[in-house]
Amino acid sequence: MRKKTSMITILTVLFLVAASYAAAHPPTSIELDYSRDDGILGIWIGHVVGNTSSHFIEEVEVKVGGREAAELRYASQGDRSGERIVVTIGRFAPGTRIEVKAECNRSGNMTGVLVVE
Prior knowledge:
The chain has one helix spanning 2-23, and strands spanning 29-35, 40-46, 57-64, 67-73, 82-88, 97-104, 109-115. The protein is α+β, with helices and mostly antiparallel strands. The longest helix has 22 residues, at 2-23.
């Protein structure tokens, strides 16, 4: 009987740990739109969550030409399907590389890249 109880306890703990990891996930997509005329970068980060105050995009880092242009931190997510951000980063010449890294507060990150046309 004691072995059976121990086995059930172990399986229950493993199930709960696996379930918590399944609920934590990195962003699924990053879409970038840059206006050379205005120097404005539009960012859409796809990250579907059930509760926007406990599971959200916590940090967004924007680099232009390898240098940090903006670092944004959040305590919740604006929408259950993801986060929309608009940031003024300045005007850049064609060929300039813009990189955006989004990090989930629970697990994982994703990077999106746009090259100015």
